[in-house]
Amino acid sequence: MPSHASQFLSQLAHSNAVWVLVQAVRGSVPRGAGTWMAVFPNSLVATIGGGRLELDAINHARAMADVPGGMEIRRFSLGPSLGQCCGGDVELRFECVGAADALRLAARLEDKKFPVALFGGGHVGTALVRVVSALPMDVTWIDSRDEIFPPDVPLGIRCEHSNPVHAAVADLLPQSRILIMSFSHAEDLDIVAACLLRQRAQADLPFIGLIGSKTKWATFRHRLEAKGFTPEELAHVTCPIGIDGIHDKRPEVIAVAVAAQLLRTGT
């Protein structure tokens, strides 16, 4: 799925637009500073939060669309006058842009993504990459088996073959969030151990998640203790994975629960 930034820049090659940026906020508002939308003559890309604020912003943008190089800053109070109960203030920057502005905008709109390493090309892994491909994550998908990755891998997902699979841990990007769900418990254990060794040496893996039950983790914990890992080190592993309160075991549901948990690590 193309990002909003790529949609905006693609359309900008053929039509001028007004770029509407949330420049500053105060109090309770729908979206934070840095949020944006692009207003084209007959379409929109992205959103600044909807409601009357967005409607008024769209109307104002289209009214100034034909002003070459036009730029204006307006402040909106989200109280009774706009029929929104948020109560805060939003400062919007309106800027008329065209194809000549694409390079400048591309640098400003580049998605800020955090790295994720997903070990395992099974059903849950396949469901997960489809969910996270549209999220602000830079995903490397790793498996030890040949020809395990499907032919329709979403754009932006890097596939990597590694045998032994845990050897890939050494080359992961700093601050990678790790998800471990290989086809075998033996591989899972090796990957967890490699991640803990890297964390011991570099302390640059903020999240190590292992798919499985509490019983699985109890077994793994005993084996990892025998390898010399301390209780403090083992506390860095999350197992089971996924946000609390979701008990459905279908791969697609697990994928959503795990993606939500990963988003928490990026805040």
Brief characterization of the structure:
The protein is an alpha/beta fold and 267 residues long. The chain has helices spanning 4-12, 51-63, 102-109, 123-132, 185-202, 214-226, 231-234, 251-265; strands spanning 17-26, 36-39, 44-46, 71-77, 89-97, 114-119, 137-143, 158-161, 177-180, 207-210, 237-238.
Describe this structure in words.
With about 270 residues, this protein is an alpha/beta fold. The chain has two domains: about 5-110, no CATH class; about 115-265, 3-Layer(aba) Sandwich (Rossmann fold), CATH 3.40.50.720. It is built from eight helices and eleven strands. It has helices at about 5-10, 50-65, 100-110, 125-130, 185-200, 215-225, 230-235, 250-265; strands at about 15-25, 35-40, 45, 70-75, 90-95, 115-120, 135-145, 160, 175-180, 205-210, 235-240. The chain has a six-stranded parallel β-sheet with strand order 8-7-6-9-10-11, with helices on both faces. A five-stranded antiparallel β-sheet has the order 3-2-1-5-4, with helices on both faces. α1 packs antiparallel against α3 (about 100-110) and α4 crosses α8 (about 250-265).
